[in-house]
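Annual report, structural modelling task.

Input specification for the 2-OXO-4-methylpentanoic acid complex:
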Amino acid sequence: MKITKVKKSRVSKIDFKHLPFGQICTDHMYVADYENGQWHKGKILPLSTFDIHPANLALHYGQSIFEGMKASKHLDGTPMLFRVDKHVERMNASAVRMCMPTIPAAMFTEAVTELVRLESAWIPPQEGSALYIRPFMFATEEYVGVRPSSKYKFVIFTCPVGPYYSKPVSLRAESQYVRACPGGVGEAKTAGNYAASLFPAKEANDAGYDQVMWMDPYEFKYIQEVGTMNIFFVIGKKIYTPALNGAILKGITRDSIIQILRSQGREVVETDLSINKVLKAHKKGKLKEVFGSGTAAVVSMVNKIAYKDQQITLDSSKYKIAPKLKAIIDGIRVGKVEDSFNWTHRVD
Ligand code: COI
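The model returned the following structure:
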């Protein structure tokens, strides 16, 4: 792969102890172009802006998809990637749904690996921080009619990040707006899903909540996911999470959590989960924990949920399962916990 390096890295100027989420980008990016029905050889070059034509199809009709991944450093100093195969799979499922070309797994993996190898000095050393990797693809053809673009760019850039949420999160269960419905694009990691979430999220923020908890589009009764993460509820001895139904993002951290919990012999129930079940469990004192999962969020505690005029408040400092899950996932990423699932990929 052709690699053009910056003359002088900015890494020595970074205060790794105070990392905001997503505001600092590293020195380089990867770019590959799709044209004439095929991907052309990608390259790594200094981070820069793109020239965009006013008729760029992505800007008008939204052919734009992305992934979120993380690289960390093993205790022995080797950069580590987490579940790359699952991210390629999801990126390509998003591509198919948005009528965009898929990316060969080997091309995706090589691009991420080479970029992380080059930017390894940017991987934050402290626990809970990581190098966030943002692979994305967008249409680049200039055309004003509605049809799939014939040209695309696949780009990867990276950001050293601290935790997405530094304190427990409060949620408002939505009872007016809808994120996704079966048959829609809810399962795709496409830009428009996030654009559509902004106004409801702003209303929830104005009402004093951190995030929206999305509900089913018919009755606003069944829980789907939170704006930035999938969601889990510990009720009695069981752990419940909404079943994937085509309208919920197939979270890779969600899948990791389910596998970890099941390997510990715990019962995880993936089901149509109603808010009434959660409210009832809370009334009976059986709702022990609520937490979200995501690449950016890892495992984030939830301490408040509002649904219409009802409100649940939980003491997340008493949670036992969620902090352990977070420690296991963070531990696997840095080699402190054995990777018995074979999820990590060393960038030697
Ligand atoms: C991620 O967790 O990687 C995401 O893409 C969520 C995004 C809202 C930061």
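The pocket of 2-OXO-4-methylpentanoic acid is lined by residues 68, 228, 294-297 (CB under 6 Å).
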